[in-house]
Each structure stands twice: as C-alpha cells, then as structure tokens.
Amino acid sequence: MQLVKNGKIATDIFVHVPDGAELPGDGAVLVTATRLLEDAEALSTRSGEVGVIWPNNRDVDDLVPFLDRLAVVALVFPTFRDGRAYSQARLLRERHGYDGELRATGQVLRDQFVFMLRAGFDAFQVKKQADAEAFAVTANRYSVFYQPTGDGRVTALNRRMQQRHSESAGQ
Amino acid sequence: MYAYDELDRTLINERVEEFRDQVKRRLSGELTEDEFKMLRLQNGVYLQLHAYMFRIAIPYGTLSSKQLRRLAHVARRYDRGYGHFTTRQNIQFNWIKLAELPDALADLAEVGIHSMQTSGNNTRNVTSDQWAGVAPGEIEDPRIWSELLRQFTTLHPEFSFLPRKFKFAITASAHDRAAIKIHDIGLRLHRNSQGETGFEVLVGGGLGRTPFIGKTIKPFVHGRDLLSYVEAILRVYNQYGRRDNIYKARIKILVHELGVDKFAAEVEDEWRAMGDRALTLDDSVIEEIRSRFTYPRYEKLPHMPDELKQAARDPLFERWRRNSVFTHKVQGYAIVTVSLKPVGGPPGDATADQMDAIADLADRYSFGEIRVGHEQNLALPHVARRDLPALWKALDKIGLATPNVNLVSDIIACPGLDYCSLANARSIPIAQELTRRFANHDTAELIGRLHINISGCINACGHHHVGHIGILGVEKNGEEFYQITIGGRADENAELGALIGPAVRYGDVADVVEDIVEAYLALRERPDELFVDTVKRLGVEPFRERVYATR
Fold it and tell me: A81 at the B interface (CB within 8 A)?
C-alpha cells in the first residue's frame, strides 16, 4: 500500500484507529464512521487532525454535518468493481462543497486513477507499488473528456463551442 | 453520418493506448486474470469457449462504407473471415488473439469505431432505430440525441462501475424499431403541446432471468435536460442498485423492489438537487452535434421509375421487393433491408467478402451508408427506387437477397453453445433447421410476419421473451431442452411471451414450431391477421392443445 497525494508519492501521517481501540491523545487519526458519529465530542477535543473512513453503503448526507472539522474523508472501494464511492465523491465535492483531502482506499489500481481524479479524489491509497509509481503517467493518459464534473476539466462539447466562437470571431 | 472530430479521434486513440498497456501488463503477469477481466470487458473482450470474443460497437446502427470495409479487414486479418451482427447494433468476432487485440483496435480507431463499453458493468452501446433519419413520419433524427448520449456515457467517471450492465435505446417514430421497452432506459422522442422536443423516459425494461417491460417514470423530459435527467437515474442506480447478487443487480430489479413511483420520486429528488446543471444542453450545443451529421443530397426522382415497372414483371424480383423494400421519407427513394438470414445459415453472420461487397453497393446505391438493426440484418438507407432491380441482382450474386425479411425464417438468435461459455444449449443449429423447414418462400409469405427468437440460455441475448415465438435453451441432466413461448413482441406494444407447455428435446423443436405455425394457419380469422394477433385474441390454450395433443 502506498499513498499518492496531490500527484506524488507521500507518507501517510494518519493513524488508522479501529473501533474499540483507544484514541491517541494527539496526532492525526483516521476513524470509522461509527466512531465519528458516536464520539464526535471526544474527537473534537483532541489536538490532532481527524479523518473518517466512510463506507460506500452509507448515505453521505449523514457525513455532511461533520465535514468542516474533517481533514480527510476516505471512501472505500471494497473491490474495484464496486463504483458507489464515485457517486459519494462527486456529491461531497460538488454538492456539499467539501474541499479537504478526499482519499480513495481499498482496491485502488492505476486503471481507476482518471475516473477517480475526475470524481474529485486527490489522494489514493494505491494497492500496488508499481501503480503508485506510474501515477503521473496514468493520470495524464487522457486529454479529452466528454462529461462535466467538479474537477473543472473542460469538456469536449465546451471545447468545440470555444473553437466555433473563435472561428466566427476571426471571420 | 456523424463525423468524428479531432477530439473524438484523440479520445479513442488514448483508449487504444491504455488498453495496449493493460494487455501488456496482463501478458507480463503484472495484472491478475481477475483484475484484467474487468479491464478487458470494458473493451468488449470476452473469454468464450474456444477463444477470446471481441465485440465492437456500431453506435445507433450507422456505418459508413469505409467503416464496414474496416470491419471486413478485421475479420480477415485477425479473425476467421467473418463476423456476427448482434441484437444490439454490435458486431462480434469469435476467434481473436489477445496479443493482436490492441492492433485490431488501432485499425478500427482509424475509421472512428471502437469497442469501449461493449461489455462489462457500464453503459453499453446506445442503440436506436436503424431507419433513423429516413423513416417517414419521424419526429426528428434520434441519432443526434443518441450521439449526445454516446459521448455522455463514454468513460463516464462516475458510472463506469455500475452494479450491472446498462443499456439505452432511443426511438423517434410511432412504430418502435429499437425495442426501447426492453432496455434499462428507453427514450421515446416526442413533442409537447408547445411543440418542444423531449422524451418519454422508460426505466427498468430488460429480459434475462427476470424479464420486465420498461415503465414510464416521466412522460416528458425536455431535450435540454436529457443528460442531467439521465445522470440522476444513473446516480440513484449506482448507489442503490443491488450488488450482492448478480441476478438482482440490474436496474429493473431496483425499480421493481422500490416500486416505480418511489423510484421515479428518488430520481426526481436527485435531479432537483443537482441544481446548477452543468449538463443542461443549450441549443447551440445541440446544433453543434447536429451539424456534424451529414445527409445525402437527394435528387428529385419519380416514385415509379421505368426500371421498377419493368422489373415488376419478374416474380422473383417482386417477391424480394415486397419483403425487403420499405418506404423512405423522400419520394423516389427506398430503404432496403439486407437479410443476413440465408436458408441454412447462422443468423446475423456476414463474411469479410460480403461486407466488402455491401460496402461497394452502399457506395454505388446508398450514399456510402449502411445501417445495422437489432434484428441482425443490415439496411441500405437511401436507395433510389430506379436502382432497386440492379441492387437486387447484385445482392443475389453475393447471397444476400434472401426474400425473408420479417418472415418466419428471419430468425434472431444468439451464438449459443457453439461459441458462448454461458450457454446451456445450442441456438444456431436450431435456427438453421427452422430456416430449412420454412425454406419455401411461398409458404413463408402465406404465414406472414412472424418473428422467431432463440436464446441459448436464460441471459436472453436472442430476446426470446419478446419473440412472437420464443425459444429458450435450458439444460436438464446434461441434455439440451427448449422452452417455447408465444405471443411476445418487442415493439411499441411490447409484451412478454407465454409458455406454451413443457420443454421439448433438441430434436423436437422444429416439429413443435411447425405445429404452432400450422395451428395458427388454422386458427387465424383472416389471412392478414398476424400470428401475434391471433395469439393475443385466443390466448395460449388453443395452441397448447394442438401442439401437445399428440405429444
């Protein structure tokens, strides 16, 4: 497992604290959704940053009230075939305005990077070292995008309209 | 025809390079077969009984002669010299080698065709009426919207890993040739009282193990809102569609379990919450896409040219014309269906030589355009009526003038156990035997319109549920058996067929079908009462009695 953040291989400073384990007094922690919902107070009195691992079968509406105190939201791909977290990611970014770290975890392979970036992920817990190392190349594999998402990439339709406008302006 | 621009070309080339890398990683062992499986499926590559099968999309069934020649080239260079047209405006090659696939894809990309999302749990090839743009009475060309949807669904970052496959079909005619009611999303283009173009949206149709006819969740979605509304549907499905059981993962099950009203309300809520709607299509964007479709410059021609009057004296020509030639929206022109159902042949197959020959004929007689229909036939959409006799002769020479379009031997069939690793029973030999039984074209014409559909397993690729006569292969104690249904149909009055009786053995299928047809001939009220209407009027019982009385 290798963390890739903002396009580069990075060290994960977040310690994963399972349910039942004692919360360290300081330092960055990643907790489960259950702990976040049940121990919100204990978490908010700590000094370190808090992130949550949010399961892909739980409505992100439940997470929304906590977003402004979270440093990381980690969404889960139990297998890479299970694409629910793509919808969660877009909802968090585009509807709920979450601008902290959005981390993809689980079975994360290089072949999903472009989709994930477009859905709003900016951190990746990559399963294979070779995939993590190939991040930059893979992430730039595509230069044409048909759909508008919150990542701001210009869609093919918009590029065509821009071309048309510049052509007609030049006439 | 839609002309790819630089952006479309760039994207498919980027896709080819990505797949090349994926194949390389698989061959080197860097990717496990499980990991690779999903990736190859996203590119239309299945592992079948004998080899890899490669499925290529023909979006909304429109092909240029250049593209068809390239398919012929792929058949020759990478396969065994033929291809199989499917029920979803795709073509399949059955003997492809994994290591050569990236090259085949690159060859296809040069003419703007690809295999993206022709399998896997994603949005599949967007299908439409094969007569789009030429059918009389059409509201407008549905391919403009099909193309908008094609682009929207291609490599969608949110919906490329859905619970299960997802299929769209669009029609813009009163008579539905695109089978929209058996699709995950069916779109019927129509105009509202203000004269604006929009869509009736049906959801949750589909065949397979649990067949459903699609239900309307919104009677009118304005054209400009098509993509945002579709995104809302897909988002609801992506989040709530079942992933615990592959047989319950299609959207039809979600719609069924929630109830159509609740599902429609969920979609409506999501759609409203989407707010700003980056997906809203303004008129200029729609025009941009429309402007890249080119249409032939039709001449002013008579409806009844001399060539046609003369040829009418030839009964063989007349028989072909009656069954294969259809009314075009422009006077003096016709739509010609090219039957890929020769007597004794596998339905939907075409050889590379035939593909090349059809491409030449399209250049000569149809402004270089070919269409592919879900009935597994091809069509030449813009033939001048004066050219019909010459075209008929040319088609006959290459074995493509079988005068059986829409008749009993125009059978729809999946590849079945001869190729498919999912199949329980053979489909192709059943179809071949039936075409031999009904080889007499006079008898076939006497019987009239009758659609037989054959699937080799419950996945229903041959759409057996909606065949006038549906044949489903099953396996019982290691033996092939066939369940037979009657009364199904896939058009605007779509209905699922009803089981006629106990399953029969492989060797008995053709006899049973003959008995059903004989029963129909005896039971029909008038010669022009179609088989499916007789079944509707009388129900299954009189057929069951006659067919099973002696069995």
Answer: yes
